[in-house]
């Protein structure tokens, strides 16, 4: 069970995050990117601190050696990711955004090699490539010409920057906070990221919200992202990263477009053969990257330190 648990958490993370694209669009109809990120994380931080207070108050005390790392990762993984993601999602289509986000595993594997000195096996390269091809098949419905227009889409650069921030957050957590409680990492990175998001809307003057004209659906979108995408999503992801490593966990991000596709199916669109084939390729790629042979072949020499 202990062996399966991290992978189950990563699958749950992908499922929750895959439904966020449509939800984020609803929130961005009524809030600015900065407001959306701030509202989401203010609520999520409250939930996390209440959870820590009720479950283990010792986690409210942060080791000084870890404080700089938590601040750094909060700025990168919470503020940076959400700022660029919501800025990009304001103009990018959910489909195009999903393709760019699917590059995250490749970025994470590269950073794992660069920062963690992780030995990357051929199987990991192959599995990542197969999984990415699966994402392209799902998104393009077999018409790869449509993929060529992705880079021309509005907001794509910001989505790409968000993917880089997420990869840095994932690898940085393993490098700088090895052995630290998943709950503590999630709580305090969310807290420091929230402070940055609040400072952004204060200094930019982007804090005026017409509460009376904001529909219930917009608040539901914020609540969903706070409670599920952030509270549960970050906890699941951070736990998976700590247990299996960012180089193997990152590939689960390619399940996100598959879930996004299933979400549109649930909302009324029909599945086709390309959706099914693409989903199978994504899953095959995940199994290849996390295969027992690949784990035995790769040896890691991870050095831990504090940021700065």
TrEMBL record:
Entries under InterPro entries matching the protein: AA-Vitamin_Transporters, EamA_dom, EmrE-like
Entry keyword Acetylation: no
Keywords, in A-Z order: Cell membrane, Membrane, Transmembrane, Transmembrane helix
Source domain of life: Bacteria
Location of the EamA domain: 7-139, 155-290
Pfam families given in the database record: EamA
Membrane topology term: Multi-pass membrane protein
Membrane spanning residue stretches: 37-55, 67-89, 95-115, 122-140, 155-173, 185-205, 217-237, 249-267, 273-293
Localization of this protein: Cell membrane
Keyword Protein transport: no
Protein's name in the database: EamA/RhaT family transporter
Species per Swiss-Prot/TrEMBL record: Leptospira stimsonii
């Amino acid at each position: 069970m202990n062996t399966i648990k991290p992978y189950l958490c990563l699958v749950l993370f992908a499922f929750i995050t895959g439904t966020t694209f449509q939800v984020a669009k609803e929130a961005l109809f009524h809030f600015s990117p900065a407001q959306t990120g701030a509202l989401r994380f203010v609520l999520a931080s409250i939930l996390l601190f209440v959870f820590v207070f009720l479950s283990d108050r010792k986690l409210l005390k942060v080791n000084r050696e870890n404080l700089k790392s938590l601040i750094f990762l909060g700025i990168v993984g919470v503020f940076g990711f959400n700022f660029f993601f919501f800025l990009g999602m304001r103009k990018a289509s959910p489909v195009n955004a999903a393709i760019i986000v699917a590059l995250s595993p490749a970025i994470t594997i590269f950073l794992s090699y660069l920062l963690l000195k992780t030995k990357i096996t051929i199987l990991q390269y192959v599995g990542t490539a197969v999984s990415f091809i699966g994402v392209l098949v799902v998104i393009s419905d077999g018409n790869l010409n449509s993929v060529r227009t992705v880079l021309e889409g509005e907001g794509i650069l910001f989505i790409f920057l968000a993917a880089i921030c997420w990869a840095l957050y994932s690898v940085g957590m393993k490098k700088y906070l090895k052995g630290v409680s998943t709950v503590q990492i999630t709580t305090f990175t969310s807290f420091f990221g929230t402070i940055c998001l609040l400072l952004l809307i204060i200094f930019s003057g982007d804090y005026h919200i017409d509460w009376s004209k904001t529909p219930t659906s917009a608040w539901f979108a914020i609540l969903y992202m706070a409670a599920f995408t952030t509270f549960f999503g970050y906890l699941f992801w951070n736990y998976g990263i700590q247990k299996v490593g960012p180089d193997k966990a990152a590939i689960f991000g390619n399940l996100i477009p598959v879930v996004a596709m299933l979400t549109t199916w649930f909302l009324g669109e029909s599945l086709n053969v390309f959706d099914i084939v693409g989903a199978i390729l994504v899953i095959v790629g995940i199994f290849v990257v996390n295969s027992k042979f690949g784990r035995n072949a790769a040896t890691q020499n991870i050095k831990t330190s504090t940021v700065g």
